[in-house]
Amino acid sequence: MAHDVFLSHSHVDKVFADAICHKLEAAGTRCWVAPRDIRPSEDWAEAIINAMDTARVLVLVFSSSSNSSPQVRREVERAVSKGLHVLPFRIENVPLSKSLEYFISTQHWLDALDGELDVHLGQLQDCIAVLLEAPAEPPKTIAPRVVVPLAASAPLQAPTATVAPIEPQVLARLEALLAHVVGPIARHLVRRAAAGAAGAQQLAATLALEIDDDAERKQFLARCKVALP
């Protein structure tokens, strides 16, 4: 089922996400929110990507918790890359983290810092109605790489050696280690990065880049060094 709005929030702010969802759906605006709209047997990361494929607007419940959440950062990043309108709904007055600032520093903000929450929810509902009437943003694309043909006299290069796939039990171990830091989306991240990795330790180094906190990143790499071949 298609949805108009994707709600991105920290689990700490679930009560606000539920209030937004109730307000918008009462007005006929279809919302997608986790964990309500993830089926028990469904892959968490895949469900998030599928929901964004049909949504038009991402509403970010912005707080100190969501500001420091790697999961929320990834959701905002994917929303921007897919051309969704991003509308932050601020419930705490905290400085924007650098990782989120890259994506939403120029966006219009809605503040719900004081006064009646229902008044702010009404303003949000009006903004959503306007955004749903506006055309979607074009998806962000990467410019194609220009390939310069080799000269006819250039010597032939030796074929690249085939990289052996990483064993499933090693991938499962990496997924468990990463999930301890970033949550269920670890499965999707491991699957995506495994295709181009030359070995378990290289894959671990790639996955470490998904962790924002420097201390947690170092702990993750230390655990991988001990647990992986």
Summed up:
The protein has 229 residues and is α/β, with parallel strands linked by helices.
Into which percent range does the helicity of residues fall?
Answer: 40-55%
Total count of helical runs of at least 4 residues = 10
Major β-sheet strand ordering: 2-1-3-4-5
Any low-confidence stretches, pLDDT <50, length ≥5? Answer: 140-154
Largest sheet, strands/sense/barrel: 5 strands, parallel
Order of helices and strands: EHEHEHHEHEHHHHH
Strand content: 5-15%
Molecular shape = elongated
Q: Supply the helix-strand structural class.
A: alpha/beta
Secondary structure tally: strands: 5
Distance between the termini: 43 Å
What is the rounded Rg? 21 Å
Question: pLDDT average, as an integer?
Answer: 82
Question: Could you explain the architecture of this structure?
Answer:
The chain is α/β, with parallel strands linked by helices. The chain is 48% helix and 9% strand. It has helices spanning 14-26, 44-54, 64-67, 70-81, 98-104, 117-133, 168-182, 186-194, 200-208, 214-227, and strands at residues 5-8, 31-32, 57-62, 85-90, 110-111. It has a five-stranded parallel sheet, sandwiched between helices. α5 links the parallel β4 (85-90) and β5 (110-111). α1 (14-26) crosses α6 (117-133) and α4 runs parallel beside α5. It is elongated. Mean pLDDT is 82; it is low at 140-154.
Key traits:
229 residues, alpha/beta, five-stranded parallel beta sheet, 10 helices, 48% helix, elongated
Task: Set down the secondary structure blueprint.
Blueprint: E1 5-8, H1 14-26, E2 31-32, H2 44-54, E3 57-62, H3 64-67, H4 70-81, E4 85-90, H5 98-104, E5 110-111, H6 117-133, H7 168-182, H8 186-194, H9 200-208, H10 214-227
Parallel strand pairs: 1-2, 1-3, 3-4, 4-5
